[in-house]
Amino acid sequence: MRVKVACVGGGPAGLYLSILLKRQDPSHDITVHERDPEGSTYGWGVTYWRGLLDKLHLHDPESACAIQEASVTWNQGEARVRDLVTRRPSDEGFGIGRHRLLEILAARARSLDVRLEFEHEITHDNLPAADLVVAADGVRSALRTRHADHFGAETTEGRNHYIWLGTSKVFDSFTFAFVETDHGWIWCYGYAFSPERSTVVVECAPRTWTGLGLDSADEADGLALLEKLFADILDGHPLIGRSTGSGSAQWLHFRTLTNRTWHRDNLVLLGDAAHTTHYSIGAGTTLALEDAIALADALHAHSELHELPRALARYERQRTSELLAIQSAARYSAQWYENLPRYIDLPPEQMFALLGQRHSPLLPHVPPQLYYRIDKAAGQLEALRRFKRWLGPKVARGVHARELASRK
Predict the structure, then answer these.
(1) How far apart are the first and last CA of the chain?
(2) For a designed S-S bond to 190, which of 126, 175, 204, 287 qualifies (C-beta 3.0 to 4.6 A apart)?
(3) What confidence tier does 39 reach under pLDDT thresholds 50, 70, 90?
(4) How far apart are CA 386 and CA 383, in angstroms?
């Protein structure tokens, strides 16, 4: 049955949903409304892993091939602490420029006769008439905010400061660098997303941020200081503040967003409008695209217009269930960095191993060196692996329950 869909927000989630719906039924009338000019997206590279690529090939091989071809890959991780360097094999990772990803998805959507309307801001007051309205307008979604009481959005703000930068240094592995200063530790994650560019995310505790003067420095002075601090990994390459547009890169606190429900009548939340997960697990774009896949599948399973409530309820149930483990991992990952002094003075191989285990709900409750020995032994003994898999979620559920109780 032909359905009219208005997708508000031209990010990866909205564009990919439009592609999937058109593939299901070319007669669908789909418009993507984006408030910014085409090609003006802010952001550097995004990461994803083989699991997502396999899903993309399954649901739309044409865009999947284009995305894979435009991506760079790595299969190692490197950690630098003071003058020590540790390098280990890792799962195959992929990086692609956000601007390039959006170009690919926009071109594919147009080829399927999706209408893309840029510089067209949609609010509740000028909401287009449609059978389904998709709020894919980001963490500060105007459509969600209009019905804030219904959706029950909650945000929690991380303690650390971070800034999203680029560089002409092309990293050959996913690189972590931890630098000790007179005011505490500052660190970055760097990964390539094209043959010419890499992303660099810099993070530090509030005391370090103010102690280094980053709270009052203008962009040029701030970048110069960061280039000096991370000179060992940049090899003389500059840090770049913004990828496109005017203005300067901003230091931020990460805001984790959750919603009590994801739909209201014919309005449904997608991507960052529905949820966010801390950038340190590199899953934001993956989760947005997986939202689009789940919503398209739910709409296909309940294809009659009168079944729309069932489709949206199915989508919400599926994604909120699938996100539980990922949101837990992101929460513990963020806390690992907020408690960096607990781990930073371990021997390099132990510190790097626990960096890879930072999403574990057990780690904050076990002395780091003991956890390292248990984890190493678990890699050799199946009984210990089973015990760890059982105990981790049990601890996570207990901690989460206490957190919920403390909010009441």
Answers:
(1) 45
(2) 175
(3) confident
(4) 5
According to the model, what pLDDT value does residue 399 have?
A: 47
Structure tokens at 154: 């909650």
For 53-100, the pLDDT digits (tens) are 999 999 999 999 999 999 999 999 999 998 889 888 988 999 999 999
pLDDT for the residue numbered 327: 93
What pLDDT digit, counting tens, does each position of 342-376 carry?
999 999 889 999 999 998 888 998 999 999 988 88
Sign of the torsion angle spanned by Cα atoms 163, 164, 168, 172: positive
193-216 confidence digits (pLDDT tens): 999 999 999 999 999 999 999 999
Task: Please check whether residue 180 is in contact with residue 80, taking contact to mean a CB–CB distance below 8 angstroms.
Answer: no
| β-bridge mates for residue 374, sequence order | none
pTM given for the model:
0.91
Distance between CA atoms of 45 and 195, rounded to whole angstroms? 12
Residue-wise pLDDT for 155-194, tens only, equals 999 999 999 999 999 999 999 999 999 999 999 999 999 9
Six token digits for residue 81: 């602490």
No. of helices (H) and no. of strands (E), the chain: 14, 16
Own/partner contacts of 184-192, CB < 8 Å, gap of 24 or more, are 184/208, 184/211, 185/340, 185/341, 185/344, 186/212, 186/229, 187/337, 187/340, 188/230, 188/233, 189/280, 190/233, 191/45, 191/47, 191/74, 191/93, 191/95, 192/45, 192/72, 192/74, 192/95
For 115, 151, 338, the CA distances from 9, given in Å and listed in that order, are 13, 18, 32
Give kind and range of the element (H or E) at residue 300. helix 284-301
Q: Is the dihedral of CA 22, 25, 33, 43 positive or negative?
A: negative
Query: What are residue 103's DSSP bridge partners?
Result: none
With both helix axes pointing from N to C terminus, report the angle between 382-407 and 368-378 in degrees, rounded to the nearest 10: 140
User: Phi and psi for 252 in degrees, rounded to 5?
Assistant: -135, 165
Sign, CA torsion 47/51/52/53: positive
By the 8 A CB rule, do 10 and 102 touch?
Answer: yes
